[in-house]
Amino acid sequence: MTALYWQTIGEGERDLVLLHGWGLNAEVWGCMLARLTPHFRLHLVDLPGYGRSQGFGAMPLEQMAEKVLAAAPPQAWWLGWSLGGLVASQAALLQPQRVLGLITVASSPCFTAQDDWPGIRPEVLSGFQHQLSQDFQRTVERFLALQTLGTESARQDARQLKAVVLSQPTPTVEVLNGGLEILRTADLRKPLAQLTLPLLRIYGYLDGLVPRKVAELLDAGWPHSASAIVPKAAHAPFISHPDEFASMVESFIQAHDSGRGSAQ
């Protein structure tokens, strides 16, 4: 049976599941380990078909969330970046009793731009899907470059992301297309409006993939959630601003755990 790559490290009493974005793998959290392991027991997973979780085909969002839930601790905080934010959100919708709280990073419940909703133009995502079959490596590199555009450390950050991709087995074109299809079609705005778990949404001010206007719209539509915008960050705020990011995560979880204590 095909198994997910799963690594658990850290000294803290609270479990925190970390989910990476499209095209990448769990190594993307490398810059966070020293900052978060003193406070949490981190669960690093390669999503199905990505990195070391080989042998999976493309799958819809709900199935991907079910696969991760099957391997996850009985109760944990979940943090998802970009596509991983959708997977973490879907996990919370499927089994809210197992998710203590949710943190999404540079993510949107609906990545595709619509009449009243800012996001990625559908033709851009369709274009990436088409280009994948033509020139796999160049398409992935272009997508990574888009994620760091505008930051002071853009070139260095893009190199770091590329190194993460190259450090592990690359996903198949089928799996990558499946991920883009999720980004193109998923819309969790209405179901997530009903979710009452602690929810923090972290954005990059310069993000070209998830416009900061999304933060304002969800502040109004999801008053139960909180948002934070990292001023000089783009789509990967934990890479460009690791200390600020770690502090946001730690403070939010601590604030919501203080009332509960650390007992499961």
Q: What gyration radius follows from the Cα positions, in whole Å?
A: 17 Å
Question: Approximately what portion of the residues adopt beta-strand conformation?
Answer: 15-25%
| Total DSSP E strands | 7
Unreliable residue stretches? none
The SSE string, one letter per element, is: EEHEHEHEHHHHHEHEHH
From the spread of the alpha carbons, the general shape counts as: globular
| SS-based class | alpha/beta
Mean pLDDT across every amino acid position: 94
User: Strand arrangement, largest sheet?
Assistant: 1-3-2-4-5-6-7
Largest sheet: 7 strands, mixed
Number of helices: 11
How far is the N terminus from the C terminus?
Answer: 31 Å
Q: Into which percent range does the helicity of residues fall? A: 40-55%
Could you describe the 3D structure shown?
This protein is of the alpha/beta class. The chain is 44% helix and 15% strand. The protein contains 11 helices and 7 strands. The protein has helices at residues 30-36, 61-71, 83-94, 122-134, 136-148, 154-167, 173-185, 189-193, 213-221, 237-240, 242-257, and strands at 6-9, 14-19, 40-45, 76-81, 99-105, 199-204, 226-230. The chain has a 7-stranded mixed β-sheet with strand order 1-3-2-4-5-6-7.
